[in-house]
Design goal:
CATH architecture: Alpha-Beta Barrel
Strand content: 15-25%
Order of helices and strands: HHEHEHHEHHEHEHEEHEEHEEH
Helix content: 40-55%
CATH superfamily: Glycosidases
Oligomer: single chain
CATH topology: TIM Barrel
Largest sheet: 8 strands, parallel, barrel
Distance between the termini: 7 Å
Length: 357
């Protein structure tokens, strides 16, 4: 344990010895002592709200934009880049000594109409993508430490999804498996050699055909020297009987390939009563799931970050029109009051620090 981690651990002693008093430590303090990055996805317009920005700066040591670095925000028009929203997040992170994850450069969703509806040839589209990766990554070089280069490329069967980047029309590798993903990573390494490059995937946290396909791709890339440094596992959880043991097994096999693992989009949605209320038993189940996910990460040194997809239910994609029967997925409620899940995460981080990291 380093001297700084020891000092951070000592600062947690009042919390660990407390008997009923309100905890004074924060998630980021406990995470620092445990040797982990604890992050959250953010919305730049909410930074002007005092409770939002104060909670964010106090509790987390890493941030990622929900949408501010995606194509439809950065490049609404083909000929111009707009980094204002992303820059706002980076400034906040700098002011609060936080790391920034970039999200995301290649995805079949959230693309502007000029891109998705255009009739590019594969050669033209390859030029557009290379230009986009290079321009955005160079703009944030030295400010964004890690990037989700490619997001959600596989379907539930472990096959590559149809997309403009792969085969509609693709960038010239539609008959060559994951070659288009490989090319994106090579362009990314050229654009910012210092950035940590991630492949990010949903519903691939356990052991299933999709996670097997991701594992096989990473193994192949590492064997052939393709520049990839990490895998992001999203973990949008909706089942209260979630079993974290397959997650731990998957983290272990990915780490054994020599890549980092980040939990990138963690939330645990709950069923809502007709009144919008949440059952207290469900809040405890949620807390147990958050604790178990943290434990699965912390037991493997290859898992270096845990990030929630938002931190307050006031601003959450869960509870939107497509998720109207569910809500309450995050660590803080709509009034920024910490839930049992917050206490569970803090306790798990603090326990890891006490075990000596």
């Amino acid at each position: 344990m380093t001297r700084s981690q020891l000092l951070t651990l000592l600062s947690l002693l009042p919390l660990l010895l407390a008997t009923g008093s309100a905890p004074q430590a924060s998630l980021r303090q406990a995470a620092a002592a445990a040797g982990l990055l604890v992050g959250t996805a953010v919305r730049p317009y909410a930074l002007s709200e005092a409770a939002y920005s104060e909670t964010l700066g106090r509790e987390f040591n890493m941030v990622e934009p929900e949408d501010a670095m995606k194509w439809w925000t950065v490049r609404r028009n083909e000929g111009a880049f707009d980094f204002q929203q992303g820059d706002q997040i980076v400034r906040f992170a700098r002011a609060h000594d936080m790391k920034v994850r970039g999200h995301c450069l290649v995805w079949d969703h959230d693309n502007p109409k000029w891109l998705s509806a255009a009739k590019f040839t594969p050669q033209q589209l390859a030029h557009v993508l290379q230009e986009h990766i290079a321009t955005e990554m160079k703009h944030y070089a030295g400010q964004v430490f890690a990037w989700d280069i490619v997001n959600e490329a596989f379907d539930e069967r472990g096959r590559l999804k149809d997309s403009i980047w792969f085969n509609q029309p693709g960038i010239g590798f539609s008959g060559e498996g994951t070659a288009y993903i490989e090319q994106a990573f090579r362009w990314a390494r050229d654009a910012d050699p210092g950035a940590v490059l991630f492949y990010n995937e949903a519903e691939a946290e356990g052991m299933n055909p999709k996670s097997d396909a991701v594992y096989a791709m990473i193994k192949d890339f590492k064997q052939r020297g393709v520049p990839i440094d990490g895998v992001g596992l999203q973990l949008h959880i909706s089942r209260l009987d979630f079993d974290a043991r397959p997650l731990a097994k998957n983290i272990a096999r990915l780490s054994a390939l020599g890549v980092q693992v980040h939990i990138t989009e963690l939330d645990v949605s709950l069923p809502l009563e007709a009144t919008g209320a949440i059952r207290s038993d469900d809040l405890q189940h949620q807390a147990d799931i958050y604790r178990n996910v943290l434990h699965a990460c912390l037991q493997n040194p290859g898992c270096t970050a845990v990030q929630t997809w938002g931190f307050t239910d006031k601003y959450s994609w869960i509870g939107s029109h497509s998720h109207g029967a569910r809500g309450g997925a995050l660590l803080f409620d709509k009034s920024y009051k910490p839930k049992p899940a917050y206490a569970a995460v803090l306790e798990e981080l603090s326990s890891q620090a006490m075990r000596g990291h």
